[in-house]
Amino acid sequence: PLGSVVNAMSIPTGFDLIDYACATICEDTKGEEFLNIGLPMGKIYEFIGNSQGGKTTLAYQCADAMVKDLDGDILALDYEHSSNNLRLRYSKINGCTREEFDTRVSLYNHASMSTEFLKELIHDVVALKKTQKKADMVEWTDVEGNDLHIYAPTVIILDSVPAMKPNEVLNDPKLDNNMVAGKMAAANSALLKSIVNMLETYNITLMAINHITTKIVTNSYAPRVVILPGLSDTENLPGGNCWAYIPSYVFKLTSGQELKADKDFVEGRFTEVRILKTRSGFNNSRLKFV
To answer: Fewer CB atoms < 10 Å away: N or C end of the chain?
Structure first.
């Protein structure tokens, strides 16, 4: 359909390690192969890992690269209420001005946000994009090198999966922990299955932040199942198994050695970015970042 990014070229993030590890080989109309580097639009990305690994930072950086040159926008859903000043944090991460932030980013962090809120928001974005004409769209290129028009990209950042709960959980204080987990998993599965087919059509990219928890083993003799290659049999993703099989790309970030400015010339830490899932042939690549 007009505006779709199903066959559109990817967008480079500026991180060569990620751009080439996630690249795909394409063929133009003359039969010549070329490398389509970067991240494709209209997909579900998941950034998982431990605390201080840089999950949110990398998601913000990839999102900014995807929208800044195509007149796109970012909808940041802060389910964790983790940032008192998202503008300052985002601006430091991406080096943008206050005006650029106000033009590019919309923040949602009210207490009543639910799983259903995210679904309704996506449908609202789709309804707005349906009203656009070809003249409102962005000039881009497909994977064969042909010109096409696409919707300006919308990137939704979900921060984070464990903090997002359905209305049924938010409004029922009597639910125990087991019932909460089950209802969250069911709601997440229904959400992802209902939106996955419309994302490419309307150029909506979902970047979800998730954590890694330890599986609770009640029967030590029962076989343990690895839910995603690259995770151990004791690691679990909150929010249900749908977060292992529905996202197109999964990046696992593991924080390492801390760096001090007075010794290492930079304040921060080493982080290993391990690509657990991608459309390219570089699954399980381990990339070292600062």
So the answer is: N
